[in-house]
Amino acid sequence: MPEAPVSDDDPCDACGSATTDALSRTVRLTVDRSQIDAQRLCPECFADWIDRYQAEMQPDRSPVDPDSEIIVD
């Protein structure tokens, strides 16, 4: 799927504020070389996105309860 051209007055997809090309960041989600999603973000929303990504991608370091119930289908 070809990417739509971005102009200088396109808004941030997260907050809607105007963002110039020089300051914008584009986050793309691609699976098997097919683009699933793309978001144009202002610097503040991009920083928030990075923080959220890092928090969600950290491995779960909680101890495993050996007595927890395991369900196998």
From TrEMBL:
Pfam families: DUF7569. InterPro entries: DUF7569. This is Small CPxCG-related zinc finger protein. It comes from Salinirubrum litoreum. The lineage of its organism: Archaea, Methanobacteriati, Methanobacteriota, Stenosarchaea group, Halobacteria.
